Amino acid sequence: MRSALSSRRSRRALRGPAALAVCAALTGAALLTACSDDGGDDSGASASPRPTAPERSHFSGEPPTPLASKASEAEESASRRAASAAASASERAHDFEASVAADVERNRQEYRKALDSADGKGNAVDDVSLTGKPLAQTDNVRALVVNITNSTDRTASYAVQVDFSDADGKVVESTVVGARDLKAGDRAQPLAISTKPPEPHLTAKIAKAQRY
Question: Cα separation of 70 and 72, whole Å?
Fold first, then answer.
């Protein structure tokens, strides 16, 4: 009986240290696992951080709304149409100016041809007169109104040559104007314009006038 009691005491004595050893082993394993997770071992999978939404305070302004986008597109479209219309208008104006210049030159050539065929001063000097325009009204450009009146009883065209002479009576410039298809009794008033400066003074006179 004394032997059996000694045996039970021996087992209790051994059980205490064994239990402590097991607890120590488990605690060490737990510590190793924690160190492995925090140490960033490349051989194991690491948990990825969950993405977070950016702070609204990091942005300025407001995102474009569908209505604002459509308004912007409409504005750009209107700008393109306006630019296209302006270019088209400019082109039409240029074409019109070129057409007018061509008509003026064609008429001038016709007037010169009529004057070249005139005898002396022509057959229509009595139907033509000059009216000067003040330089203040023409921005210092010398210009005169050529008054042409068809004194006949039928439609006619007129060609007029105006000479500009200096103080010595020397002709320094000539210009040709006229009127086409002027009806009986009607009046035309083209302008005779000098390209010379306003000074010195020049005298204008009708050199020729031909009705044809």
Answer: 5
- 123 sits in the region (left: phi over 0; alpha: psi -120 to 50; else beta) called alpha
pTM: 0.55
**Distance of alpha carbon 178 from alpha carbon 182, whole angstroms:** 10
Token output for 197:
């400066």
Measured CA to CA, the distance from residue 36 to residue 39 in angstroms comes to: 5
DSSP 58: G
Cis peptide before 197, with omega less than 30 degrees from 0?
no
Over the chain, what is the mean pLDDT? 78
Exposed/middle/buried for residue 176 (C-beta within 10 Å: 0-12, 13-18, 19+): buried
Do residues 204 and 132 touch, judged by C-beta distance below 8 A? Answer: yes
| Per-residue tokens: 196 | 């010379």
DSSP 102-160: HHHHHHHHHHHHHHHT-STT-S-GGGEEEEE--GGGTTT--EEEEEEE--SSS-EEEEE
Condensed to tens digits (0 to 9), the pLDDT of residues 12-67 reads 544 544 444 444 444 444 444 444 444 444 444 455 556 666 565 555 555 666 77
